[in-house]
Design a protein that fits this description.
Elements (H helix, E strand, L loop, with lengths): L7 H10 L37 H8 L13 H12 L1 E6 L6 E5 L10 E7 L8 E6 L4 E5 L4 H5 L13 E7 L2 H7 L2 H23 L3 E5 L4 H7 L8 E9 L3
Antiparallel strand pairs: 1-2, 3-4, 3-6, 4-5, 6-8, 7-8
Helix pairs in contact: 3-6, 5-6
């Protein structure tokens, strides 16, 4: 089947749907592959040594992936900080001095379109009943989904054991439409980059809050999109994260 090069939506969706979870078991065995490291022979190379320490620098250095979480209850205030730091509203911005304004957020976004949505399977937290929720950043609230349960979300992961006791199993989805409309096929890259920005915000906030995270790309796309009731022509899950207390 041939696709027109200027058909941004179809090109992006075809790539997305055909780059699902890799079934090669060896891909998950660390010893099979070597770490990438590129060195250029340069007799005048310059040595870089970090000068001094800062709170942010220490937070970055402390970030690690956690694959075993403890059975602990998460305080409600940590829950609120997590979602706000990931994709919350940080202020109203006026672009280029014009009257057009957009809600600024903690994550950079191509064109200020903010195409991401956050969903979470939440359990063992103060105040919030166990269940699956959508985060509404404009109204700063969690909206309960009735279409699925926490166990349904875990079954969509390749390695659900990694998040067995995580208080939050976060899903970052992307609504591609407006970004592709504005930027063409490259808009797909921008949505994916934004998901990475959002995840890194969470990783650093977790360290600062005494929490641990694990970022997961190993999930069944068809299963999770069906579980959440998505029309994949409009929205699809891009990223999973586990958040909780390290065991």
């Amino acid at each position: 089947m041939q696709l027109p090069a200027d058909d941004a939506t179809t090109l992006a969706l075809w790539y997305h749907l055909n780059s699902g979870v890799w079934s090669n078991v060896e891909a998950y065995v660390d010893s099979v592959y070597e770490l990438h490291n590129k060195t250029i022979l340069d007799p005048e190379s310059i040595s870089l040594v970090p000068a001094g320490r800062t709170p942010l620098g220490e937070t970055i250095e402390a970030r690690r992936s956690c694959r075993k979480f403890a059975q602990r209850t998460m305080p409600f205030d940590k829950l609120g900080r997590i979602f706000h730091s990931a994709y919350g509203i940080t202020g109203l911005r006026h672009e280029n001095g014009s009257s057009w304004a957009t809600w600024g957020r903690a994550t950079p976004s191509a064109g200020g379109l903010y195409p991401l949505e956050l969903y979470a399977a939440i359990r063992k937290t103060d105040t919030v009943p166990d269940g699956v929720y959508h985060y509404n950043p404009i109204e700063q609230r969690l909206e309960r989904l009735t279409c699925c349960a926490v166990s349904d979300i875990n079954r969509c992961l390749v390695f659900p054991d990694f998040v067995e006791n995580a208080n939050i199993v976060l899903m970052i989805s992307g609504a591609f439409g407006e970004t592709l409309k504005k930027y063409g096929p490259r808009g797909y890259r921008y949505v994916m980059l934004e998901a990475g920005h959002c995840a890194q915000n969470l990783c650093l906030l977790a360290v600062e809050s005494g929490l641990a995270t694990v970022c997961l790309g190993g999930f069944n796309d068809r299963a999770i999109n069906k579980t959440l009731g998505f029309d994949v022509q409009k929205e699809a899950v891009l990223y999973f994260m586990g958040i909780g207390f390290a065991a």
